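All the exercises in this workshop are built on plain-text protein records. There is nothing in a record beyond a sequence line and a structure line. A learned vocabulary of local backbone shapes supplies the integers on the structure line. The question running through the whole workshop is how a given chain folds. Here is such a record, shown just as it appears in the course material:

***
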Amino acid sequence: MPSKDPVFTPELIKILKIFGLASVVLVVFLSFFDSYRANNSGEDTTFRMTSASRLFFLNLKALNYEQEVRKDAGMVLYRHKGFSMSSDIPSTFLVLILNTPKDESYLYIEPHLLDWPFSILALLGQNEQILSLENGNKYDHLKQVTKLYDLVQQEAEFYLLVSDQKIPLWQTDSEKEAVISTFEDYFRIIEN
């Protein structure tokens, strides 16, 4: 009868220690990069709002907004109280929209006393930039809002171009604060 050779020889134990330790170190190292996983779900998370960001907005920031419930669309529209909406002069407002059934949020540029399409002139010192805004889907509005936000961050002066007239847009301190606050709240909601 053959003698039984020991399975765990000293050489095998050394190999297990080396590879076991290397495996543990590799797993710990890769766990730091867990958030960089590929998104294979096929979902578009561009407009996705988390429950935490939505609750933060509703509990702390929504007090600064006038609320309009649209039951037909399942959405709630928020207009900042800093905008003077009772004016008889053409203007535009930012409307933050929460689509709770889809867990999405949108930012809409709402014309007041004018129709789509319209243009906004942005003055940055000696530079002029004209934004031609058209009504479209949520992706079109996101592109337009992003361009507008970049100009707001550069502290541009805005004018609405209506029938070859330049109408001052968002000139008062409360309107400037409303624009900045609405942008900040929106990008915080979608965690961008």
